[in-house]
TrEMBL record:
A Pfam entry, by short name: GtrA_DPMS_TM
Record's keyword annotation contains Membrane: yes
Organism per entry: Pseudoalteromonas phenolica
Gene Ontology biological process: polysaccharide biosynthetic process
Primary location: membrane
Protein name listed in UniProt: GtrA/DPMS transmembrane domain-containing protein
Cellular component per GO, a single term: plasma membrane
Record lineage: Bacteria, Pseudomonadati, Pseudomonadota, Gammaproteobacteria, Alteromonadales
Sequence similarity: Belongs to the GtrA family.
Record-annotated GtrA/DPMS transmembrane domain positions: 7-119
Transmembrane segments: 6-27, 39-60, 80-108
Length: 128
């Protein structure tokens, strides 16, 4: 995994902080908890796409739209895992713990799909 995974984790941490701050801000202003969670997740998804595109994988020479659609697909797939874990745990554990566990469980699948499909060097070469 190495250095690329560390970069992915750094981008993920920025996305996590974005997600967490927006979520708690929306909860603070009395937004329904799942609406707040979904909106915060979508904001974080855009932050992580940009970070992974330009920093982690540095794959920005082929169709950005196709890459964005793939990123959104992977993010939403693992986002469902993330939010499902979050929701189930939030019924019996502190919100922060539920938030962290949902994010951690989804991270490995997200990295694997990002590396081998969303930001694949093979895909980049095929597009050029």
């Amino acid at each position: 995994m190495g250095q690329q995974f560390i970069k992915f984790a750094v981008v993920g941490a920025v996305g996590f902080v974005t997600d967490l701050l927006i979520f708690y801000l929306l909860v603070f202003v009395n937004t329904e908890i799942l609406v707040a969670r979904l909106f915060a997740f979508w904001c974080a998804t855009m932050v992580t796409w940009l970070g992974n595109r330009f920093f982690t994988f540095a794959v920005y020479e082929f169709g950005w739209f196709k890459q964005l659609i793939r990123h959104l697909s992977v993010s939403h797939l693992f986002g469902m895992v993330n939010i499902s874990v979050f929701y189930c745990l939030s019924l019996m554990a502190p919100l922060f713990l539920a938030f962290v566990m949902g994010t951690a469980i989804a991270m490995i699948g997200n990295y694997t799909c990002s590396k081998f499909w969303v930001f694949s060097e093979r895909e980049q070469k095929a597009a050029t």
